[in-house]
Specification:
The protein contains 15 helices and 30 strands. By secondary structure, it is an alpha/beta fold. It folds into 2 domains: 2-301, 4-Layer Sandwich (Purple Acid Phosphatase, chain A, domain 2), CATH 3.60.21; 307-517, 5'-Nucleotidase, C-terminal domain (5'-nucleotidase,  domain 2). Residues 4-237 form the Calcineurin-like phosphoesterase domain.
Protein backbone atom coordinates (compact mmCIF):
# COMPACT_ATOMS: atom_id res chain seq x y z
CA UNK A 1 0.00 0.00 0.00
CA UNK A 2 1.19 3.51 -0.83
CA UNK A 3 0.14 6.85 0.61
CA UNK A 4 0.75 9.89 -1.59
CA UNK A 5 0.63 13.28 0.13
CA UNK A 6 0.07 16.23 -2.20
CA UNK A 7 0.36 19.81 -1.00
CA UNK A 8 -0.04 23.37 -2.16
CA UNK A 9 1.33 26.27 -0.12
CA UNK A 10 1.84 30.01 -0.42
CA UNK A 11 -0.35 30.37 -3.49
CA UNK A 12 -1.11 33.91 -2.29
CA UNK A 13 -4.26 34.28 -4.32
CA UNK A 14 -2.57 33.59 -7.65
CA UNK A 15 -5.43 31.52 -8.97
CA UNK A 16 -4.72 32.26 -12.64
CA UNK A 17 -1.36 32.15 -14.46
CA UNK A 18 -0.77 35.91 -14.41
CA UNK A 19 1.06 38.46 -12.29
CA UNK A 20 -1.48 41.13 -13.30
CA UNK A 21 1.19 43.43 -14.73
CA UNK A 22 -1.00 43.72 -17.85
CA UNK A 23 -4.18 42.14 -19.18
CA UNK A 24 -2.40 39.69 -21.49
CA UNK A 25 0.31 38.62 -19.03
CA UNK A 26 0.93 34.87 -18.77
CA UNK A 27 3.11 33.07 -16.24
CA UNK A 28 4.10 29.44 -15.67
CA UNK A 29 2.33 29.27 -12.31
CA UNK A 30 -1.10 29.60 -10.76
CA UNK A 31 -3.43 27.50 -8.64
CA UNK A 32 -5.53 26.42 -11.63
CA UNK A 33 -2.41 24.73 -13.04
CA UNK A 34 -1.73 23.13 -9.66
CA UNK A 35 -5.33 21.89 -9.61
CA UNK A 36 -4.77 20.12 -12.92
CA UNK A 37 -1.64 18.41 -11.59
CA UNK A 38 -3.44 17.35 -8.39
CA UNK A 39 -6.41 15.95 -10.28
CA UNK A 40 -4.14 13.99 -12.60
CA UNK A 41 -2.44 12.32 -9.62
CA UNK A 42 -5.80 11.62 -7.99
CA UNK A 43 -7.20 10.12 -11.18
CA UNK A 44 -4.13 7.95 -11.82
CA UNK A 45 -4.18 6.46 -8.33
CA UNK A 46 -4.33 2.68 -8.40
CA UNK A 47 -6.27 0.46 -6.02
CA UNK A 48 -3.27 0.19 -3.70
CA UNK A 49 -2.70 3.98 -3.49
CA UNK A 50 -4.26 6.51 -1.14
CA UNK A 51 -3.96 10.18 -2.14
CA UNK A 52 -4.08 12.80 0.61
CA UNK A 53 -4.20 16.48 -0.42
CA UNK A 54 -3.36 19.40 1.89
CA UNK A 55 -3.67 23.18 1.43
CA UNK A 56 -0.84 24.50 3.58
CA UNK A 57 -1.67 28.18 4.00
CA UNK A 58 -1.20 31.70 2.63
CA UNK A 59 -3.95 30.97 0.12
CA UNK A 60 -6.32 33.96 0.32
CA UNK A 61 -3.98 37.00 0.25
CA UNK A 62 -1.29 38.41 -2.00
CA UNK A 63 -2.43 38.84 -5.60
CA UNK A 64 -4.54 41.59 -7.14
CA UNK A 65 -7.26 38.93 -7.44
CA UNK A 66 -7.25 38.53 -3.64
CA UNK A 67 -7.09 42.30 -3.08
CA UNK A 68 -10.22 42.71 -5.22
CA UNK A 69 -12.15 39.94 -3.44
CA UNK A 70 -11.24 41.44 -0.06
CA UNK A 71 -13.38 44.44 -1.04
CA UNK A 72 -16.34 42.43 -2.30
CA UNK A 73 -19.39 40.95 -0.53
CA UNK A 74 -18.97 37.79 1.52
CA UNK A 75 -20.51 35.47 -1.07
CA UNK A 76 -17.86 36.46 -3.63
CA UNK A 77 -15.02 35.99 -1.13
CA UNK A 78 -16.15 32.39 -0.67
CA UNK A 79 -14.90 31.71 -4.21
CA UNK A 80 -11.56 30.64 -2.72
CA UNK A 81 -13.02 27.58 -1.03
CA UNK A 82 -15.51 27.00 -3.80
CA UNK A 83 -12.35 26.23 -5.80
CA UNK A 84 -10.52 24.09 -3.24
CA UNK A 85 -13.58 22.00 -2.38
CA UNK A 86 -13.89 21.02 -6.03
CA UNK A 87 -10.67 18.99 -6.13
CA UNK A 88 -10.95 17.15 -2.80
CA UNK A 89 -8.55 18.56 -0.27
CA UNK A 90 -8.41 16.50 2.91
CA UNK A 91 -7.25 19.32 5.19
CA UNK A 92 -6.20 22.94 5.26
CA UNK A 93 -3.78 24.94 7.42
CA UNK A 94 -3.77 28.69 8.02
CA UNK A 95 -0.78 30.75 6.98
CA UNK A 96 0.30 34.02 8.56
CA UNK A 97 -1.13 36.05 5.66
CA UNK A 98 -4.58 34.53 6.15
CA UNK A 99 -5.02 37.14 8.90
CA UNK A 100 -4.06 40.23 6.87
CA UNK A 101 -7.63 41.36 6.17
CA UNK A 102 -9.08 40.35 9.53
CA UNK A 103 -11.11 37.43 10.80
CA UNK A 104 -14.34 38.27 8.95
CA UNK A 105 -12.60 38.01 5.58
CA UNK A 106 -10.97 34.77 6.67
CA UNK A 107 -14.31 33.30 7.73
CA UNK A 108 -15.95 34.40 4.49
CA UNK A 109 -13.23 32.92 2.30
CA UNK A 110 -13.30 29.59 4.09
CA UNK A 111 -17.05 29.08 4.49
CA UNK A 112 -17.64 26.84 1.45
CA UNK A 113 -14.94 24.30 2.20
CA UNK A 114 -15.71 20.62 2.67
CA UNK A 115 -12.50 19.78 4.54
CA UNK A 116 -11.30 20.69 8.04
CA UNK A 117 -9.04 23.62 8.85
CA UNK A 118 -6.43 22.50 11.36
CA UNK A 119 -4.44 24.52 13.88
CA UNK A 120 -3.12 22.75 16.94
CA UNK A 121 -1.04 25.73 18.09
CA UNK A 122 -3.69 28.45 17.62
CA UNK A 123 -5.70 28.73 20.82
CA UNK A 124 -9.16 30.21 20.38
CA UNK A 125 -9.33 29.36 16.67
CA UNK A 126 -12.33 27.05 17.02
CA UNK A 127 -14.22 29.54 19.19
CA UNK A 128 -13.55 32.30 16.66
CA UNK A 129 -14.92 30.15 13.85
CA UNK A 130 -11.70 29.98 11.84
CA UNK A 131 -10.56 26.46 12.77
CA UNK A 132 -12.20 23.08 13.18
CA UNK A 133 -9.70 21.01 15.15
CA UNK A 134 -6.01 20.56 15.95
CA UNK A 135 -5.85 17.46 13.77
CA UNK A 136 -7.92 15.14 11.65
CA UNK A 137 -7.73 11.40 10.99
CA UNK A 138 -8.55 10.14 7.51
CA UNK A 139 -9.28 6.43 7.17
CA UNK A 140 -9.08 4.82 3.75
CA UNK A 141 -8.67 1.14 2.85
CA UNK A 142 -8.15 0.29 6.49
CA UNK A 143 -5.26 2.79 6.88
CA UNK A 144 -5.64 5.54 9.47
CA UNK A 145 -3.79 8.72 8.47
CA UNK A 146 -3.47 11.55 11.00
CA UNK A 147 -2.81 15.13 9.85
CA UNK A 148 -1.63 17.63 12.48
CA UNK A 149 -1.96 21.31 11.51
CA UNK A 150 0.53 23.94 12.68
CA UNK A 151 1.05 27.63 11.85
CA UNK A 152 4.17 29.70 12.45
CA UNK A 153 3.91 31.07 15.97
CA UNK A 154 5.35 34.39 14.83
CA UNK A 155 2.00 35.68 13.51
CA UNK A 156 1.41 38.09 16.45
CA UNK A 157 4.77 39.72 15.79
CA UNK A 158 3.63 40.84 12.34
CA UNK A 159 -0.12 41.12 12.52
CA UNK A 160 -2.38 43.85 13.87
CA UNK A 161 -3.84 42.90 17.26
CA UNK A 162 -7.42 43.54 16.12
CA UNK A 163 -6.95 40.91 13.40
CA UNK A 164 -6.16 38.30 16.07
CA UNK A 165 -9.01 38.89 18.52
CA UNK A 166 -9.44 35.93 20.85
CA UNK A 167 -6.40 34.09 19.46
CA UNK A 168 -3.03 33.12 20.90
CA UNK A 169 -0.18 31.20 19.29
CA UNK A 170 2.20 28.70 20.85
CA UNK A 171 5.40 27.15 19.55
CA UNK A 172 4.92 24.68 16.71
CA UNK A 173 7.70 22.54 18.18
CA UNK A 174 6.18 22.41 21.67
CA UNK A 175 2.77 21.65 20.21
CA UNK A 176 4.07 18.86 17.98
CA UNK A 177 5.87 17.26 20.91
CA UNK A 178 2.53 17.15 22.69
CA UNK A 179 0.34 15.87 19.85
CA UNK A 180 2.53 13.55 17.76
CA UNK A 181 2.80 10.84 20.45
CA UNK A 182 -1.00 10.93 20.84
CA UNK A 183 -1.49 10.60 17.09
CA UNK A 184 1.00 7.74 16.88
CA UNK A 185 -1.31 5.80 19.18
CA UNK A 186 -4.37 6.64 17.09
CA UNK A 187 -3.14 6.29 13.51
CA UNK A 188 -0.89 4.25 11.24
CA UNK A 189 0.60 7.32 9.50
CA UNK A 190 1.31 10.72 11.04
CA UNK A 191 1.63 13.77 8.80
CA UNK A 192 2.60 17.19 10.13
CA UNK A 193 1.41 20.07 7.93
CA UNK A 194 3.26 23.18 9.07
CA UNK A 195 2.94 26.65 7.64
CA UNK A 196 6.49 27.45 8.57
CA UNK A 197 9.94 26.76 7.26
CA UNK A 198 13.43 25.86 8.36
CA UNK A 199 15.73 27.78 10.66
CA UNK A 200 18.79 25.65 9.87
CA UNK A 201 20.49 24.07 6.89
CA UNK A 202 18.75 20.78 6.18
CA UNK A 203 22.02 18.98 5.46
CA UNK A 204 24.38 20.39 8.09
CA UNK A 205 21.99 21.53 10.79
CA UNK A 206 23.77 24.88 11.02
CA UNK A 207 21.45 27.80 11.86
CA UNK A 208 20.53 29.99 8.89
CA UNK A 209 18.65 32.64 10.86
CA UNK A 210 18.04 33.86 14.39
CA UNK A 211 16.04 31.35 16.41
CA UNK A 212 12.96 33.49 16.95
CA UNK A 213 10.31 30.80 16.62
CA UNK A 214 9.22 31.98 13.17
CA UNK A 215 10.56 28.81 11.56
CA UNK A 216 10.86 25.59 13.57
CA UNK A 217 10.95 22.97 10.81
CA UNK A 218 14.49 21.80 11.50
CA UNK A 219 13.63 21.20 15.13
CA UNK A 220 10.50 19.31 14.13
CA UNK A 221 12.71 16.98 12.08
CA UNK A 222 15.32 16.55 14.79
CA UNK A 223 13.35 16.59 18.03
CA UNK A 224 9.90 15.10 17.41
CA UNK A 225 9.97 11.31 16.99
CA UNK A 226 7.06 9.70 15.19
CA UNK A 227 6.55 12.03 12.22
CA UNK A 228 6.16 10.08 8.97
CA UNK A 229 5.91 13.09 6.63
CA UNK A 230 6.47 16.84 6.98
CA UNK A 231 4.69 19.34 4.70
CA UNK A 232 6.07 22.89 5.00
CA UNK A 233 5.72 26.35 3.48
CA UNK A 234 6.11 30.03 4.38
CA UNK A 235 9.65 30.53 3.07
CA UNK A 236 8.62 30.16 -0.60
CA UNK A 237 11.40 27.66 -1.16
CA UNK A 238 11.14 24.75 -3.56
CA UNK A 239 12.56 21.73 -1.78
CA UNK A 240 11.88 18.04 -1.54
CA UNK A 241 13.92 15.32 0.09
CA UNK A 242 14.28 12.90 2.95
CA UNK A 243 15.92 14.64 5.90
CA UNK A 244 16.74 12.81 9.12
CA UNK A 245 14.61 9.98 7.79
CA UNK A 246 11.51 12.15 7.25
CA UNK A 247 10.27 12.96 3.72
CA UNK A 248 9.73 16.70 3.47
CA UNK A 249 8.37 19.11 0.88
CA UNK A 250 7.98 22.84 0.38
CA UNK A 251 6.40 23.72 -2.99
CA UNK A 252 7.51 27.33 -3.45
CA UNK A 253 4.89 29.98 -4.13
CA UNK A 254 2.05 30.99 -6.47
CA UNK A 255 1.20 27.41 -7.42
CA UNK A 256 4.46 26.89 -9.29
CA UNK A 257 4.76 23.35 -7.94
CA UNK A 258 2.85 20.73 -5.99
CA UNK A 259 4.62 18.83 -3.22
CA UNK A 260 4.39 15.05 -3.39
CA UNK A 261 5.49 12.67 -0.65
CA UNK A 262 5.15 8.91 -1.18
CA UNK A 263 5.07 6.49 1.74
CA UNK A 264 5.14 2.73 1.18
CA UNK A 265 3.49 0.63 3.89
CA UNK A 266 3.91 -3.08 4.53
CA UNK A 267 1.17 -5.49 5.54
CA UNK A 268 1.61 -4.45 9.17
CA UNK A 269 0.85 -0.86 8.11
CA UNK A 270 4.38 0.28 8.88
CA UNK A 271 6.25 2.73 6.64
CA UNK A 272 9.07 0.84 4.93
CA UNK A 273 10.00 3.28 2.18
CA UNK A 274 9.64 6.99 1.63
CA UNK A 275 10.40 9.64 -0.98
CA UNK A 276 9.64 13.28 -1.76
CA UNK A 277 9.51 15.27 -4.96
CA UNK A 278 8.02 18.41 -6.49
CA UNK A 279 5.61 18.26 -9.41
CA UNK A 280 6.07 21.34 -11.58
CA UNK A 281 2.93 23.02 -12.88
CA UNK A 282 4.65 25.02 -15.63
CA UNK A 283 3.40 22.88 -18.53
CA UNK A 284 -0.01 22.06 -17.07
CA UNK A 285 -3.12 23.59 -18.60
CA UNK A 286 -5.44 25.37 -16.18
CA UNK A 287 -8.44 23.22 -15.34
CA UNK A 288 -11.11 24.38 -17.81
CA UNK A 289 -14.13 23.95 -15.54
CA UNK A 290 -12.49 25.87 -12.72
CA UNK A 291 -11.25 28.55 -15.13
CA UNK A 292 -14.85 29.03 -16.30
CA UNK A 293 -15.93 29.46 -12.68
CA UNK A 294 -13.28 32.13 -12.15
CA UNK A 295 -13.66 33.95 -15.49
CA UNK A 296 -16.43 36.42 -14.51
CA UNK A 297 -14.52 37.57 -11.43
CA UNK A 298 -11.28 37.71 -13.39
CA UNK A 299 -12.83 40.11 -15.90
CA UNK A 300 -14.03 42.31 -13.04
CA UNK A 301 -10.54 42.26 -11.53
CA UNK A 302 -8.90 43.33 -14.80
CA UNK A 303 -11.35 46.21 -15.26
CA UNK A 304 -10.85 47.27 -11.63
CA UNK A 305 -7.07 47.26 -12.07
CA UNK A 306 -7.23 49.50 -15.13
CA UNK A 307 -8.99 52.35 -13.34
CA UNK A 308 -6.92 55.55 -13.22
CA UNK A 309 -5.50 56.65 -9.89
CA UNK A 310 -3.47 59.76 -10.64
CA UNK A 311 -0.90 61.48 -12.78
CA UNK A 312 2.84 62.02 -12.43
CA UNK A 313 5.16 64.68 -13.73
CA UNK A 314 8.79 65.58 -13.06
CA UNK A 315 11.26 62.77 -12.36
CA UNK A 316 10.12 59.32 -13.52
CA UNK A 317 8.83 56.95 -10.86
CA UNK A 318 9.41 53.92 -13.10
CA UNK A 319 11.95 51.46 -11.64
CA UNK A 320 14.20 49.94 -14.31
CA UNK A 321 17.23 48.92 -12.21
CA UNK A 322 16.27 47.64 -8.74
CA UNK A 323 19.85 47.37 -7.45
CA UNK A 324 20.66 50.90 -8.57
CA UNK A 325 17.51 52.10 -6.80
CA UNK A 326 18.67 50.46 -3.59
CA UNK A 327 22.20 51.86 -3.90
CA UNK A 328 21.40 55.36 -5.07
CA UNK A 329 17.82 55.97 -4.07
CA UNK A 330 14.91 56.52 -6.43
CA UNK A 331 12.05 59.01 -6.92
CA UNK A 332 9.56 56.16 -6.45
CA UNK A 333 10.95 55.30 -3.00
CA UNK A 334 11.02 58.97 -2.05
CA UNK A 335 7.36 59.21 -3.10
CA UNK A 336 6.29 56.23 -0.97
CA UNK A 337 8.09 57.77 2.01
CA UNK A 338 6.33 61.06 1.29
CA UNK A 339 2.97 59.28 1.46
CA UNK A 340 3.98 57.64 4.74
CA UNK A 341 5.11 60.94 6.23
CA UNK A 342 1.86 62.66 5.20
CA UNK A 343 -0.31 59.89 6.65
CA UNK A 344 1.80 59.45 9.78
CA UNK A 345 2.38 63.16 10.38
CA UNK A 346 6.14 62.75 10.63
CA UNK A 347 9.14 64.06 8.76
CA UNK A 348 11.03 60.74 8.73
CA UNK A 349 9.88 57.56 6.95
CA UNK A 350 11.26 54.27 5.71
CA UNK A 351 10.17 51.96 2.93
CA UNK A 352 11.55 49.04 0.94
CA UNK A 353 11.74 48.14 -2.71
CA UNK A 354 10.08 44.84 -1.93
CA UNK A 355 11.32 42.69 -4.79
CA UNK A 356 12.93 42.98 -8.19
CA UNK A 357 9.54 42.74 -9.91
CA UNK A 358 8.47 46.15 -8.56
CA UNK A 359 8.37 48.50 -11.52
CA UNK A 360 7.15 51.68 -9.86
CA UNK A 361 4.64 54.01 -11.49
CA UNK A 362 4.16 55.49 -14.95
CA UNK A 363 3.01 58.96 -15.93
CA UNK A 364 -0.63 57.86 -15.95
CA UNK A 365 -0.97 55.84 -12.75
CA UNK A 366 -3.42 52.95 -12.69
CA UNK A 367 -4.51 50.82 -9.77
CA UNK A 368 -2.72 47.95 -11.52
CA UNK A 369 0.61 49.76 -11.26
CA UNK A 370 -0.04 50.71 -7.66
CA UNK A 371 -0.89 47.20 -6.46
CA UNK A 372 1.98 45.62 -8.38
CA UNK A 373 4.40 48.06 -6.78
CA UNK A 374 2.97 47.82 -3.24
CA UNK A 375 1.68 44.21 -3.08
CA UNK A 376 1.43 43.79 0.70
CA UNK A 377 -1.55 44.51 2.94
CA UNK A 378 0.60 46.56 5.30
CA UNK A 379 -0.81 49.33 7.44
CA UNK A 380 1.24 52.19 8.84
CA UNK A 381 2.67 52.88 12.29
CA UNK A 382 4.72 55.69 13.74
CA UNK A 383 7.37 54.71 16.26
CA UNK A 384 9.37 56.91 18.58
CA UNK A 385 12.93 55.60 18.78
CA UNK A 386 16.28 56.83 19.98
CA UNK A 387 19.10 57.95 17.76
CA UNK A 388 21.01 54.83 18.78
CA UNK A 389 18.11 52.63 17.69
CA UNK A 390 17.84 54.43 14.36
CA UNK A 391 21.56 53.94 13.78
CA UNK A 392 21.20 50.22 14.59
CA UNK A 393 18.38 49.95 12.04
CA UNK A 394 20.53 51.65 9.42
CA UNK A 395 23.41 49.27 10.20
CA UNK A 396 21.02 46.40 9.53
CA UNK A 397 20.18 48.06 6.19
CA UNK A 398 23.87 48.54 5.37
CA UNK A 399 24.49 44.83 5.98
CA UNK A 400 22.28 44.15 2.93
CA UNK A 401 25.26 44.73 0.63
CA UNK A 402 28.41 42.77 -0.11
CA UNK A 403 31.37 44.10 -2.05
CA UNK A 404 33.92 41.93 -3.82
CA UNK A 405 37.63 42.74 -4.03
CA UNK A 406 37.13 44.14 -7.53
CA UNK A 407 34.38 46.48 -6.33
CA UNK A 408 31.34 44.52 -7.50
CA UNK A 409 28.35 45.02 -5.24
CA UNK A 410 25.90 42.25 -4.42
CA UNK A 411 23.32 41.18 -1.84
CA UNK A 412 24.34 39.52 1.40
CA UNK A 413 23.30 35.85 1.74
CA UNK A 414 21.46 36.81 4.93
CA UNK A 415 18.87 38.52 2.68
CA UNK A 416 18.64 35.73 0.11
CA UNK A 417 19.04 32.46 2.07
CA UNK A 418 17.11 30.43 3.01
CA UNK A 419 14.40 32.82 1.78
CA UNK A 420 14.70 35.72 -0.64
CA UNK A 421 13.98 38.71 1.59
CA UNK A 422 14.89 41.81 -0.40
CA UNK A 423 12.00 43.55 1.38
CA UNK A 424 14.15 43.71 4.52
CA UNK A 425 16.32 46.52 3.15
CA UNK A 426 14.83 49.95 3.84
CA UNK A 427 15.53 53.37 2.38
CA UNK A 428 14.84 56.38 4.56
CA UNK A 429 13.69 59.92 3.87
CA UNK A 430 13.90 62.88 6.26
CA UNK A 431 17.41 62.10 7.45
CA UNK A 432 20.80 62.35 5.74
CA UNK A 433 23.05 59.32 6.02
CA UNK A 434 26.08 57.65 4.48
CA UNK A 435 27.13 54.00 4.25
CA UNK A 436 30.78 53.07 3.82
CA UNK A 437 30.70 49.48 2.56
CA UNK A 438 34.46 49.13 2.96
CA UNK A 439 33.91 49.06 6.72
CA UNK A 440 32.97 45.93 8.68
CA UNK A 441 29.29 45.06 9.06
CA UNK A 442 27.99 46.91 12.10
CA UNK A 443 30.27 49.93 11.53
CA UNK A 444 29.13 51.07 8.11
CA UNK A 445 26.99 54.08 9.06
CA UNK A 446 29.56 56.86 8.98
CA UNK A 447 27.19 59.83 8.87
CA UNK A 448 23.70 60.34 10.29
CA UNK A 449 22.12 63.80 10.30
CA UNK A 450 18.65 65.17 11.08
CA UNK A 451 17.73 68.73 10.14
CA UNK A 452 21.39 69.42 9.44
CA UNK A 453 22.60 68.26 12.85
CA UNK A 454 24.27 64.99 13.89
CA UNK A 455 21.82 62.53 15.42
CA UNK A 456 22.64 62.00 19.08
CA UNK A 457 22.31 58.53 20.59
CA UNK A 458 19.82 59.65 23.23
CA UNK A 459 17.57 61.96 21.21
CA UNK A 460 14.19 60.65 20.12
CA UNK A 461 12.74 60.70 16.63
CA UNK A 462 9.35 59.73 15.20
CA UNK A 463 9.54 57.45 12.15
CA UNK A 464 6.71 56.25 9.90
CA UNK A 465 7.02 52.67 8.67
CA UNK A 466 4.79 49.76 7.73
CA UNK A 467 3.49 47.66 10.60
CA UNK A 468 5.55 44.61 9.59
CA UNK A 469 8.74 46.54 10.20
CA UNK A 470 7.25 48.34 13.17
CA UNK A 471 6.68 44.99 14.86
CA UNK A 472 10.35 44.12 14.39
CA UNK A 473 9.79 41.98 11.29
CA UNK A 474 12.82 41.33 9.11
CA UNK A 475 15.26 41.09 12.04
CA UNK A 476 14.83 44.65 13.25
CA UNK A 477 14.59 44.13 17.04
CA UNK A 478 15.09 47.85 17.67
CA UNK A 479 11.49 48.35 16.49
CA UNK A 480 8.59 46.94 18.50
CA UNK A 481 4.88 47.51 19.20
CA UNK A 482 5.61 49.16 22.56
CA UNK A 483 7.32 52.03 20.71
CA UNK A 484 4.30 52.80 18.53
CA UNK A 485 2.96 56.28 19.23
CA UNK A 486 0.48 56.44 16.34
CA UNK A 487 -1.29 53.93 14.10
CA UNK A 488 -2.86 54.49 10.69
CA UNK A 489 -5.00 51.38 10.19
CA UNK A 490 -5.38 51.77 6.45
CA UNK A 491 -3.59 49.58 3.91
CA UNK A 492 -0.60 51.32 2.34
CA UNK A 493 -1.99 50.82 -1.17
CA UNK A 494 -5.15 52.67 -0.11
CA UNK A 495 -3.08 55.43 1.52
CA UNK A 496 -1.23 55.90 -1.77
CA UNK A 497 -4.54 56.03 -3.66
CA UNK A 498 -5.90 58.59 -1.20
CA UNK A 499 -2.75 60.69 -1.65
CA UNK A 500 -3.46 60.85 -5.38
CA UNK A 501 -7.05 61.87 -4.67
CA UNK A 502 -5.76 64.80 -2.62
CA UNK A 503 -3.03 65.60 -5.17
CA UNK A 504 -4.11 64.28 -8.59
CA UNK A 505 -0.83 65.43 -10.17
CA UNK A 506 2.27 64.38 -8.22
CA UNK A 507 5.73 65.70 -8.99
CA UNK A 508 8.47 63.07 -8.97
CA UNK A 509 11.62 64.27 -7.22
CA UNK A 510 15.07 62.66 -6.99
CA UNK A 511 16.24 61.09 -3.76
CA UNK A 512 19.43 62.74 -2.59
CA UNK A 513 19.47 62.26 1.18
CA UNK A 514 21.84 59.29 1.35
CA UNK A 515 25.03 58.07 -0.27
CA UNK A 516 26.86 54.76 -0.33
CA UNK A 517 30.59 54.33 -0.75
CA UNK A 518 31.83 51.09 -2.36
CA UNK A 519 35.57 51.63 -2.45
CA UNK A 520 38.24 52.84 -0.06
CA UNK A 521 38.12 56.59 0.34
Amino acid sequence: MKVKILSTSDVHGYVLPTNYSRRDDHQDYGWLKAATVIQEVQQRATSDEIVITIENGDWIQGSAFASYLAQQPADQQALFTQLTRSIHYDAGVLGNHEFNYGLDYLRNCERRRNYPLLGANIQGGVAQGILDAPYTIVEEQGIKIAILGLTTAYVPVWERADHLTGLSFTSALTTAKRFVPQLRALADVVIVAYHGGFEADLETGQPTERLTGENEGSQLLADVPGIDALVTGHQHRQLAGVYQGIPTTQPGEKGGAVGEITLTLNQEKKVVDRSATLLTTATAQPDSALAALVAPIQEQVETWLDQPVGQLTGESLAVTDPMAARLCGHPYLRFINTVEMAAGQTDIAATALFNDEVRGLGEQVSLRQLLNSYPYANTLVVERVTGAELRAALERCASFFTVTDDGQVGVSPAFTTPKLALYNYDIYSGIEYHFDLTQPVGRRVTQLMYHGQPVEATQTLAIAMNQYRGNGGGDYPMFSPDKVCREVNVDMAELIRQYFVAQPVVIGRPQTNFTINLTAE
